[in-house]
Amino acid sequence: MPEYPLEGRRFDGLVRLESAEPRGMIALRGTPEELSSALEESVGLAWPATGEAAWTGEVGALWMAPDELLLLVPQGQAQDLVERLGRSLADRHHLVADVSDMRTLLRMSGSGCRDVLAKVTPADVSPAGLSIGRVRRSRVGQVAAAIWLRDGETAEIACFRSVAHYVFDLLADAAHPEARVDYWTPQGADAQA
Question: Which ranges of the chain does DSSP label H, i.e. alpha helix?
Fold first, then answer.
């Protein structure tokens, strides 16, 4: 596996921004009807609803499109899962590929996550638009990204490895302490009511 591009990089401002621990990432494509049973047998997760994420421990299935999921697994487990899924789906139309080397994960933590995201993405990051368990495929600045909340104060962003430094720097600029907005943070949300 190539060197993880942001390993050890961290920024503390309105939120803490850091590279998330490297994880295995698998693209799974095909119809839910064809793939659901193999997904459940292999990782114990049902096909998530449109725009949702399903989790069991550190294994996640993120809805990317009507016929596509992004599976997140602990680092080092992706290739084994690709092989198991491939065997299980051998008689069905599908694509299963280890994309761990293509993408990078960033983590933001702190009550200002929504404010920081709102500055850099056109996605609806309001509590109604990006609730815990929802996944948004959108843009961060000028590049494609997927965004989801693990809990009320932790957002994760997946982007292509080749633009990871750009995304990190853009988010760090948006999280600069002098760039406070307080719209979605608890004190800002109270002021909006």
Answer: 32-43, 78-88, 113-120, 164-174, 186-192
